[in-house]
Structure formats: structure tokens, C-alpha cells
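Quick log. Single chain, no ligands specified.
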Amino acid sequence: MPDRKVIVIGVDGVRHDTLQEASTPHLDTVVKAGFLSEFSVSDQAPVNSGPLWATVATGVWPAFHGVYDNSLAGNRLASFPDFLHALTWMDKSVRTYVAAAWQPLATRIFRPPSRLMMMNGDKLGYHEADESVARDAVGVLRHDKVDAAFVCFGEPDSVAHRHGIGPEYREAVERADARIGDITAAIAERSGEEWTVIVVTDHGHRDEGGHGGRSKAESTAWLAAAGPGITRGPASHADVFPTVFAALGRTPHRGFGLVGTALQHAGGGGE
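-> predicted structure:
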């Protein structure tokens, strides 16, 4: 039997309509093998990166994890572990990997994994930071022992904030897709393994750039997934955690308080 593995690839701030307009052959390959679900950000979460990535990581809403803005002030993440930490808490042999260019995500929302690659996109610029993240991820995923991974790219969100929704933004989305392709190609080179791939965004943007409101452009997110047992259906940010566990054949501890549903089963989109 193939060895089951899983990777979650985050792409910050990608509008669903821009995703449909852009050339994204590598994401399209994931979608063809599985599905793409467009959904509204839960009204239980502010439409900002901190709260939404915290829900992706922990599988619970801000009322539990306590992240309501990008400062992460007053959070309760110590009581609600991210899916990688939860895996290693249940089985210390599991090897985990995190690579991201937004430091709070890499070092505060996610607890220290087996291997960490972190860049400071706010100082370095997200184009260069994402390129470094992608290079490291490709090397690790091509050669090293990894059971579960989270890799996140921030350039599309950064470009939208600076330039709004236009050609520069679409090009940033297409560069993110190319990085996704590099990662999935590295995974394909591994033998004797069967990977579940999840690609998810946190939120959209207004036409002029920016988010935080409840307009459709801002509050529409999407998730694509492919892998053993993945079924077509609705999804939400809260479904990522249980899907990661199901991909590895693990059952989450009841104490994690998960509110979503594994996408290997019918009826995701937990609220």
C-alpha cells in the first residue's frame, strides 16, 4: 500500500473571479483530479488573514482560537493546536514541515514543526520571499522525509493591497500557480507515496485592493483538493484540519473541538 502524505498550500488573498480568469494550469490539474469549492467566509470570522489562517490551522472559529485580527493579540492558540502540531502530539514519529513568508503565520499560528522555513515578506517583499519559500519547499519535498506540510505564498495579497485588482494582481496569481506546480512536481518525483493536496485562500479583495468587509469580492474564498477518498462537495476553512487527519488515516482527538468535516466524507462546509 502507498504511504499516505498530505500538503496544504495556502495562497493569500486570491479572488475567485480572478482565479477563473488567470492561467493556472497547475491548480487546474489539482481541480481536475478532485474539486474546487467556492464558499463565503463564515460570519463567525473577520475577513482578515490572521483569523482565517488560524481557522485553517486549528479547525475552530475565532470564538475558540481567539484570533480576531492580524496582531493575534489575546489569542488562545495554546489551547487549540494547529493540525501539524496535533499530528505530532498524537504520534511523535510524524514529520512535519512549514514554509511561509508571513512570520506570524509561520511562527505563532503554527507551532514549531519538524522543519521550518520562514521569510519576512513584509521586509523582503513578497515576490522574493515567496520565491525563497518555493525553492526550500521543492528541495525538502523532493528529498526529505515529510508526512504533512503547510506552505503559504503571500504575493497575490501584497500586490492587491498595492495595485488593486488588475494585470499586476493576475500576474501574481499566475506566479503563485507556477510555484504550486514546482511543489506538485517535486511530490510527483517521490516513489511509494500517495499525496493529498489541498490548496486554499483566506479571503478576496475589493476592486481597489483591501479587505475586511463582507462584500462578495472580499468574503468569497475557495478551496481545491485532490487525493484518496476526496469527494466533491462544499467546503470551508474549518474543513482543512479534519481533512489532513483523514488523509493520513488518523482520527482527531475530541478535545480539539473541530467544527468542520473531512472532505473525504460527504458534506463539508462546517459552520
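The beta strands are 3-11, 35-40, 96-100, 115-118, 148-153, 193-200, 220-226.
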